[in-house]
Each structure stands twice: as structure tokens, then as C-alpha cells.
């Protein structure tokens, strides 16, 4: 199954297809993780994207039943240097190729992923398409250049109906902008009583549930495309503790008057160092985002900077000066990646306890 990857900038990579024998197109990005491909391909934040793995060997421990971050993957495709056909792991149930075929996803292997990554770093993220070897390259390039990809990724991956994950501790409403199951796992480990709601749920509807706290999840796409999020957050500020992760972090910034912008090639991987300005400690974090809060735009807001990325000095965390509300750009739930930052869930529980005692 000979395939090729065509980029809107004109570069063409020839390789071997795996998974479903169908064409697929999306925004081509890269991830620097050495492991965690199962969590990655099931992360809703990758909705609409074709992900390049910079680590050369992918698929060597197969696919298992336990490491999914969503029920149905939203990723558009996967690009790898070498695909392992015969995984070896006691938990493995399927090969990556078999899983992609069952989920009707397309991938391509056998291409120079380091060269592709350098192109993305130089140009920024690019639109691309995985097609049959005999496809007309000129026509595909013209198609990619003329096409605007959808801006409703959050609507695509958010739950349509509320559901609960019961516990006996604090009641937390998790607003699902494309939430990973890792967030629910971390809250459940702290015995939280979780209600997951759709991204278009209003502040009044959430407050009727009488929660002890509200979690704003990760999710895909441009935060400025998420309709109603600023109204939701402003309707909750001061009335209930709020914790935002990734897209939730960006939405808190926008709601409080800050600005966001698109990074040239984003942060995606499990090895990103982040400095906590309060403690001076550095955490190695799991990240997956293409947008960031403009730190200069925070100056005239009620938000203060709490964390910065050491690689490029971009904003990685904020805290509200008046109300119980904080957020981080990275993923404290990991899945995949290091768990250096999962203490933030404990801080959220402490914040809910303090707020409840005061009121």
C-alpha cells in the first residue's frame, strides 16, 4: 500500500501506508514523545491533525485496553519513520496497524520524519494530505492551499449529554471541551464526585448543580473559536473555584481580557520544562497545544503569571488575583508523560475546601 504525504508548501514524502486505505488531510504537527502513542492518538486535542512522531520506532508495544484517553480517536492521521509490525508487550492486544484499520484511520511510515520536523519548525505547522502514490501532486497542493479547515473542533469532540463519575468527595463539574480521561482519573483518585457537561453548558446551568468546583478541560483548536466560553467563565468567577487545563487555561485568559496567539509549531511531547515562579522549582511536563496566552496582554488584567516555559519563555500558568481560579497550559494529568505536576489536582481540592469553609 504505497502512499505519499503532500504538504501545502510543495514537499512530497513517499512511504508505506498503514491502517485504512483511505486519503486523509489535516494540519501536520509533530510530537517529541518517545512513548505514549496510544494516549496521543486517542487525545481529543488532536482533532483535525496529522501527527508526526519524531521518535523513529513507533508501535513496538502495541495497543492495549487500558491506555485510551477517549472512546473514539479524533486524530486525522499518523506519520512515523518505522512502524513495528510485531509488538512485544504483555498487555498488547492489537498492533497499531490493526487498530488503525479497525478505526478507519490512515497513517504513513517509512518517511524521513526528522526532515519533516525541520520543515515544520521552519515554516510553522502546515496543511497536508496522505494520499495514494499515484495521486496528482499539483492538484492536491492547490486543494490544500485553497482549503480552510473547520473551526468547530471543540463541538466535534465535546460530549453531547452530561454524565457522572460518582464519588463521595467534592462535587466537581468538568466542562468537556475535549477532555482526556486522565483528568477524570486524577479527580476520581481524590474521590471527587464528577459531572461531565457539554462545552455549551451555561454558568447558570452549572451553578444549579451546586458544585464545589469547576474544571475547564483541554481541547482542540483556536480558543477564540469557542463560542460562549467567556460568558461561562465570567458567570462562574467568584462563585465557585475554577481550575483550567490547556484550552481551559487559554479560555480563562480570554475571559479575563488577555489575548491568545498561534505558536509557530506548538508544544507537543512529554519533555517540556516549566518553571513555577512561586517555588522556583522546574517540572518536566506533558504538553499538547498550538496556541498560547500573550503574556504582555496580561498586564492590565486580574490575572498574574505563575508558570513559564523554559524552552521559549511562553506563558504556562496564571492565577486570578481576586477569585479562587488558576490554570496551567500543560497537562498535570500527563497521559502520556511525566507526573511531576499532578500535585495541582491536590491544590484544586485544597482550594475547594478553603472556599467551602469561608462560605
Automatic annotation (TrEMBL):
Keyword Nucleotide-binding: yes
Active-site residues, Swiss-Prot/TrEMBL: 246 (nucleophile), 331, 333
SMART domains, A to Z: CPSase_sm_chain
Keyword line: Amino-acid biosynthesis, Arginine biosynthesis, ATP-binding, Glutamine amidotransferase, Ligase, Nucleotide-binding, Pyrimidine biosynthesis
GO terms (BP aspect): 'de novo' pyrimidine nucleobase biosynthetic process; 'de novo' UMP biosynthetic process; glutamine metabolic process; L-arginine biosynthetic process
Pathway noted in the entry: Amino-acid biosynthesis; L-arginine biosynthesis; carbamoyl phosphate from bicarbonate: step 1/1; Pyrimidine metabolism; UMP biosynthesis via de novo pathway; (S)-dihydroorotate from bicarbonate: step 1/3
CDD domains in alphabetical order: GATase1_CPSase (cd01744)
Cleavable signal peptide: none
Molecular functions per Gene Ontology: ATP binding; carbamoyl-phosphate synthase (glutamine-hydrolyzing) activity; glutaminase activity
Renumbered residue ranges of the record's region CPSase: 1-170
InterPro entries reported in the protein's UniProt record: Anth_synth/Amidotransfase, CarbamoylP_synth_ssu, CarbamoylP_synth_ssu_N, CarbP_synth_ssu_N_sf, Class_I_gatase-like, CPSase_GATase1, GATASE
Domain of life the protein comes from: Bacteria
EC number: 6.3.5.5
Assembly information from the UniProt record: Composed of two chains; the small (or glutamine) chain promotes the hydrolysis of glutamine to ammonia, which is used by the large (or ammonia) chain to synthesize carbamoyl phosphate. Tetramer of heterodimers (alpha,beta)4.
NCBIfam families: CPSaseIIsmall, PRK12838.1
Protein task: Small subunit of the glutamine-dependent carbamoyl phosphate synthetase (CPSase). CPSase catalyzes the formation of carbamoyl phosphate from the ammonia moiety of glutamine, carbonate, and phosphate donated by ATP, constituting the first step of 2 biosynthetic pathways, one leading to arginine and/or urea and the other to pyrimidine nucleotides. The small subunit (glutamine amidotransferase) binds and cleaves glutamine to supply the large subunit with the substrate ammonia.
Protein name: Carbamoyl phosphate synthase small chain
